[in-house]
Amino acid sequence: MTIDWTQFTPWTALAGGILLGIASAAFILVNGRVLGVSGILGGLLVPSRSDTSWRVFFLLGMVLAPATLTLLAPGLISAPRIEAGTVAIIAAGLLVGLGTRYGSGCTSGHGVCGLSRLSPRSLVATLAFMASGFATVYVIRHLI
Amino acid sequence: MHRFSEFVVGLLFGWGLLISGMTDPGKVLGFLDLAGAWDPSLAFVMGGGVLVGLVGFTLARKRTRSLLGSAMHLPTSRDLDRRLVLGSLAFGVGWGLAGFCPGPGIVAMGAGESQAALFVVAMIVGMLLFELLDRKAKASAARGAEA
Fold first, then answer.
1. Are B59 and A53 in contact (CB under 8 A)?
2. What is the DSSP letter of A50?
3. Chain B residues with beta carbon closer than 8 angstroms to that of A60
4. B48-87 pLDDT, tens per residue?
5. In Å, how far from its chain's centre is CA B58?
């Protein structure tokens, strides 16, 4: 294994991670909700009237995050590098949508909140999606 | 007050994803590429998140009501079943294909990235497909129970 020191950004990664933790802790303590993005979005697709608006307001905050952060701290974030082509993007979206709903969570609900709750289910889920994520990138970058 | 705090939490979470590098698929794939030039940064994202999360959820466990007075919606399922494992494996394949998971896809769409918007649309289609398949499976399970 070789480490790419030119890309290694431990401080911004840690700072961003701590912010994710603060948001997750605030959500459970203030609102009594687990911050799981796939569950919050997925729950909108089976609408029951009383359960919709909190999801919409949370997602609205996420969508407005780039514009507000750019306003507060210009130049802090760099443009995303998207390598995948259109077909791969569509396949990825379908798999992520199906998989996170069957698996009841994603990197936020299982990875951050679930591990913080010491949930065995979330540990199993996190190990599974990390393993298949590593395997997929290995196949794409080193075998094909 | 509820709606305001949900909005602010979404905003903070989005900022965290942006600052950490999670919204950059190039960075995510650099982390998932163990055999190439590996960028371990994202391990620090999860480390930082879980560190703070541990404190938050430890405090939350002692509460019967949230600070705003609503019920505590904590997951109750404890099954380590096939759905959990196969679903999570499929999610990881999608994550490795494009470098987007749900949150960062939504945030990058908010930044005006058209490919991220396409990812989010496909993700919603995948979620709708789940609702369809799951409803079918539950209906046939119920029929099986009657028969």
1. no
2. G
3. 7, 10
4. 999 999 999 999 999 999 999 999 999 989 899 999 999 9
5. 21
* Contact call for A3 and B119, based on CB within 8 A: no
8 Å CB contact between A130 and B93: no
C-alpha torsion B107→B110→B116→B118, nearest 10? 130
Question: Does B139 touch chain A if contact means CB atoms closer than 8 Å?
Answer: no
Share in percent of chain B as helix, strand, coil (round to 5): 75, 5, 25
* Domain limits, chain A: 11-143
Within 16-55 of B, beta carbons closer than 8 Å to A belong to 16-27, 29-30, 32-55
Q: CB of A7 within 8 A of CB of A72?
A: no
Which 3 state secondary structure label does DSSP give B38?
Answer: strand
ipTM confidence score: 0.96
Q: Give the number of residues written for chain B.
A: 147
Q: Which two tokens stand for residue B24?
A: 């950059």
A28–B56 C-beta distance less than 8 A: yes
